[in-house]
Structure formats: structure tokens, C-alpha cells
Amino acid sequence: MTYRKKLIEVALPLEEINKQSAREKSIRHGHPSTLHLWWARRPLAACRAVLFASLVDDPSEYMPDEKSAHDERERLFRLIERLVNWDNLNDEKLFAEARLEIARSVARNLGVEVPVGDAAIREFLATKAPPVLDPFAGGGSIPLEAQRLGLRAYASDLNPVAVLINKALIEIPPRFANRPPVHPPLTPGPSPRRGEGGRGEEQPSLFQKEWRGAQGLAEDVRYYGKWMRDEAEKRIGHLYPKVSVIANPDGTYRHATPEEIQNSKSKIQHLTVIAWLWARTVKCPNPACGATMPLARSFWLSTKKGKQAWVQPIVDNKAKAVRFEVRTGEGKAPDGTVNRRGASCICCGTPVPFEYIRAEGKAKRMGAQLMAIVAEGKKGRIYLAPVANHEEIASTAVPIWKPELDLMGKAAVNVPLYGLRTQADLFTARQLVSLDIFSDLTIEARKRIESDALVAGLPLPIASVYANGVMTYLGFAVDKAADYWSTICFWHNGAAHQKIVNTFARQAIAMSWDFAEGNPFSESSGHFFRFVSLISEVIDTAAPAISTAQVKQCDAADLYSNKEVCVSTDPPYYDNISYADLSDFFYVWLRRSLGKIYPEIFTTMLVPKAQELVATPYRFDGDKERAQRFFEEGLGRVFVHLREIQQPKYPITVYYAFKQAETEEDSNDDNNDTLAVSTGWETMLEAILLAGLTLTGTWPMRTELITSLKKNVSALASSIVIVCRVRALDAHAVTRREFIAALKRELPPALKELQQGYIAPVDLAQAA
């Protein structure tokens, strides 16, 4: 079998790709990671570079000599270096240049002339270039970047949440590209465009602006998201009271007394609450005490220099009770009452084992006590002691619906041990009421969108589809709200930022002793319109809204059997992440708000798990060997199928992610982690080879932000991109002696070339 070598099979400007991939971890506004949470997303920069280099011929295939090939390769490197820079994401001239390079290689392979003009090139790529297929699409990075490069993008996944994410990224925006929004013109005044609860510049007339790409769609998401926020406040705003405060001479604040509130001459400020900070409680097991003891990992509210604040527990030994005050300035917060060894009663000092706390939780005797209130001041956060009426108001909330479905697998790391057994148990009653209301408003918003679309001139079928599209993004906003409105969220008291930390700060749902309950109607951390704004920025900034795309929910081993595609994928690996278990958290709310417009996706009460390609022992009655065999056999079937549908003129690219980074200290031969990484690497390679594929390249991708210089030197790359081809049926077999001789002959110059490509020594084994 003859084919032209692609750039990715020869060389890559790896240093810049890695630099820009790592940089993406710190980008928030407009990045697809802020559309909807997904675990272990591949960086856009890496995906863009890999796809481009997989489709573009290496210059050695068409240049007359080695020097001219080298010079041409360097030119392509400079193009890739510009392509992977996030700052150039909307540089249309740059991407037109990239599409031209791909078109040249496609035309060269087909033996036809390269079309002239960007429009002709787009049409050529959309019809003649192989479609890019990601059968494990997940967070959508690979299909999104295929679309950005002008290629047809096919995405599939078994997970309904992943399917919706991909639809929102690559399927919905192109349908409504270059259209104005359908919402009624706004009256002059502040626009919600900036994303902070209505603040921003004056709204321009809808007819005075050229709406490019998905800008009109993004504007409608903002508009109807703002309507949802305002309507929700009318219905449940009473559950989120403001605080009435008076400034002290020293610049601190205190709660106004009832008398001061009644006195019109009092200089009272009514401040919006950002968050209510609660501590879980249990009864002290000491019979001589029996106090309601708070469980808190930390009493710090802010460790920022000059703005330190903390909660000071005040023990009433006579009443066997604890109340809380807020202290600021010089001083130190007392130690928390919970650590890794257990808890202690703050009233009597009795050590309390986790076994007791778990028993209390399972018996539904675990409560919560308000520790502090965080409010929005004119010059930043204001920390206040709790007030009784705020606890009383929170206790009046009665949800109309609860997701009373069991937590499973990795979603239940330890919370069921403490009585949090169902999805509903992760939320306060007030949080459930809010999520109920916003879910209902998503459905109500759809009716408004369709009606406004008809008035704007869209025919009924298109108006209905458009309403479904906008509704999808609004449903995502509710999902993001769930991530920030659970009792797993906690208050980050760091020097740089003081904010609510979301439920999935890690790839599991872990117990949180003290938790932060955000205010949907604030203009700070965790408010609803911020989620809407983040989503609309992704539509505005990162969604290319070009080229055709198709998203399917199906098994990776059974799709597109009659097509020739170019496969690029990031498959699951053993039990690294149990996507189905974790995404149940989001699925229950998406099903409630979007189930009627996606009935084919939401056919089950929870995310389907039986077919998920993951080695999770609990699904096999705890049998690790059966779980491993299920995964390995399934992965093998997938690669066999991909070999059958792969266009042989192009390579397959596979991302292999390490379970954890190795450091210099734990990379010795006796370390089990090192053995696990090596075994995993060998297993992946074996699956590829047994499927009838042959490796033509491996590239280490450093896609994590690393702050320590030592770690930067010794840590393995976070993923390896494996490049492989369909192996010819008549491929020549060699003896072991011939293989070793060839290895000795070819490895030294290859290593030298890899070192010149800025590959760190620790990554050479995988890259070679």
C-alpha cells in the first residue's frame, strides 16, 4: 500500500503546541470548557495541530530535495505555531491559509487542481476531504477543531451529556450562522451583554449590526437567559433575602438592628448576599456534652493580606451550643473541627471518629448551621455573622421535584457513607427549589423564543428548531447552576480569590463538611446570569459555525460502516474516569429541562452504563479481571472497526492519557505507579497492533500547567498522540534479529531528531 507521508509522521513544532495547550488551562472566557463541564477535555491547540498535521503532506513528498523540504517544513511549522495560539482563534485570514494548505494536500492525493478562492476551498474541503470522525467525542474538542479547519465533523458518544455538548458546539451554530437574533429590540438602557446581571453598554439596534457566525444565536441566549433570571427572581427572590448593614467607623460592617431598620434616618445599606456559608452538624457523642457540634474543615473566610477574615466559634457551655461571629484584621482563625483522622467536638474537645458521623448521617441526623454570610460591598466582599431570619427563610423552601435517584460508582466516592445516597441529597431544599424553577423557566422560555422567531420572519419549522437550539444552551446554564449550587461546593478563602468552588473541583463527588450556598440573583460568584454569559461567549468566540457536522449517540464499534473517514480520537482508558457515573449529576437536570425536545437521547432515567467502555469493577460484581477483560475486548473491537472505515491515505491519531504524572521521586523501578503506566502504555499499543494497524509516530503532549521547575523537568507528558496507519495485508514480517538490527540502525538518528524537536528526556521512551 502506497501513501504520502503526512507532516505528523515526520515532525511537529512540539514546543509551541505544548506551550499553547498548557496555556489553555487558564483561559475561561469563550473557551468551550465553560460551555458545560466535561472531564479530561483535550486542549483545542493540540487537537488543531494534530488534525492539520494529519491532513497536510510532509514536504519530503513533493519538494525536490532535502534542503527545500526542510525549508518548506519550517514554513508549515510557523503556520502551526500561529494556528495554536488562542489569541488567533478568530483570525479568519490565518484559518483561510490553513484551509488552503489542507486543500493542496487533498488535491495532490486526488490528482486534481487546487480550487481558487476561500469559498471554493471551503466547498472543496466539505466535499472532497475525508470527514474527521471522533467516536469518543466527549467534550467535543476534536470535532470542533475539525470544523474550524473547514472539514466535515462526525462526532459520536454513548453518553447523552457528551452528545448534547457536541451538538451545542458543532451542530447547532452552523444551522443559524450569520442570522440576527430573534428577540424583540430592547429599549435604550443597559444591555446584559457583558454578563454581569444587566451591566454593560447600551444595546445597539438589531438592524444596525452585521451578525456574523453565531453572534445572533449568542445574543438570543443572553436575552432569554436574562429573562429567565429576572422571572425567577420574581418567583423565588423572597428565598434569597438581602442583608441590612451599617458601616462601623473602622470600615467594617454590622447588621442593622430592627429599630435602625425602622428608622428612616439610619444610614442603612441593603446588600445582596453572594453566599451563605454553612457547617454540617451532628450531636456530640459524649453523654456529658450532647452539643450540636459543627463540622468545618476551616474557619477562614479570606486569607488575603490586609483583608483577612474568619469565623470565630463562640461556645456557650451552659447551653451546650455554638454560635458564630466574624472577625477581621490581625489574628488567626481557629483550627477546623474535621481533619483526615476524624472530628472533634468544639464544646468539650471529645474526639469523634468518622464511623460515628457516618452513622448519624445515614440515620438522617446530620444537620447544618449557618456560620457566616458573604455580601457584595462597594469595595469588595463583606463578611458578616449569621442572622436567625436568614436561617428561618432558608428552612421554608419546599421543592416540588427531587432527583431521587441513587448515586453510583465514582459519583459516590464517600458521600453515601454519610447518608447522601441520592442525587437530591446533594442539595439543600432551597437549592432544589431554585433548580426546579430554572428548569421550568427553560421550558417556558422555549415558547417565547418560538413566538419571537415567528414574528421575526422565520417559518414555523425553522422557528421551532431555532427555539430548541437556544433552549439547549439555557438548559446547559441550569446544569452549570447545579454544579455551583450543591452542598459539595465550598468557599475558597485563598489570597488571590475568594469564591464558591464548584461540585466537580475533582473528578468525583467528595464530601464537603462546610459548604457555600450561592445566590442565583447576585452579581458575583455562582449567580445564574454568569453561567448564561459564559455559554454565550463560547458561542460567540469559539464556535466556528462553518462546515457540516453530524452528532450521533451510538457505540464506537458500530457506526458509519459505509464511510471512509479520518479518525482522530481520545478513547477512555480503563477506570481513569467513569463518565457515565459522574454525568448522572447533570443528566437528571438536562432530562428535566430538555427531555421533550431530545426524547431519543433521554430515554433512560440515568445515563446508560452497561455498554460504557470502562473497566469499573462494581459493574461486574467487584470482579476486576472481568472488568479489565470487558474493557480490553471492547477497545479491540473498536480499533478493528476504525481500521475498516479509515481512509487509508490518511493516518489515525489516538490520544493516550496517563492516569497520573510521574515525578522524579516515584519513577524508580520498584514503584507500582511506574509499572501501571508502563503496562497501560503496552496494552494500548497491543490493542492497536492486534487490530491490524501499524504505528508511524508518537508525540508527547504536555497539556498540564506545571508550576514547579522540578516537576517540569521530571514529569511525564500528560498524554501521547499515537499516529498509526492501516497495515497492508502483504506487510513484510521480520525476525527478531532483523528487528533489533533495524532498531540499532534507525534509533540513534531518530533520537537526535526528537531531541531537536524539544522533546524532554523523560518523554523520549514514548516518543521513540
Report on the architecture of this protein:
- With 768 residues, this protein is of the alpha+beta class.
- It folds into two domains: 7-177 and 543-767, Rossmann fold (3-Layer(aba) Sandwich), CATH 3.40.50; 239-431, no CATH class.
- Helices cover 38% and strands 15% of the residues.
- The strands form six sheets. The chain has a seven-stranded mixed beta sheet with strand order 19-2-1-20-21-23-22, with helices on both faces. Strands 6, 7, 14, 15 and 18 form a five-stranded antiparallel beta sheet that branches. Strands 4-3-5 form a three-stranded antiparallel beta sheet, with no helix packed on it.
- Strand 12 and strand 13 form a beta hairpin.
- Helix 4 packs across helix 5 (118-128) and helix 16 (624-645) packs parallel to helix 17 (672-690).
- The chain is globular.
* Secondary structure: helix percent: 25-40%
Q: Mind telling me the CATH class of the largest domain?
A: Alpha Beta
Tally of extended strands?
A: 23
User: How many discrete domains?
Assistant: 2
Distance from first to last alpha carbon: 24 Å
Radius of gyration: 28 Å
Residue share in β-strands: 15-25%
Task: Explain the layout of strands and helices.
Layout: H1 14-23, H2 44-55, H3 66-83, H4 92-110, H5 118-128, E1 132-134, H6 141-148, E2 153-157, H7 160-175, H8 215-236, E3 243-247, E4 253-255, H9 258-262, E5 269-271, E6 273-283, E7 292-295, E8 300-302, E9 309-316, E10 321-328, E11 338-339, E12 342-344, E13 351-352, H10 354-362, E14 367-377, E15 380-384, H11 388-395, H12 429-455, H13 460-484, E16 490-492, E17 499-501, E18 514-518, H14 528-541, E19 549-553, E20 566-569, H15 579-594, H16 624-645, E21 652-657, H17 672-690, E22 693-701, H18 709-714, E23 719-726, H19 736-756, H20 764-767
Parallel strand pairs: 1-2, 1-20, 2-19, 20-21
Antiparallel strand pairs: 3-4, 3-5, 6-7, 6-14, 6-18, 8-9, 9-10, 11-12, 12-13, 14-15, 16-17, 21-23, 22-23
Helix pairs in contact: 1-2, 2-6, 3-4, 4-5, 8-12, 8-13, 8-14, 12-13, 12-15, 13-14, 13-15, 16-17
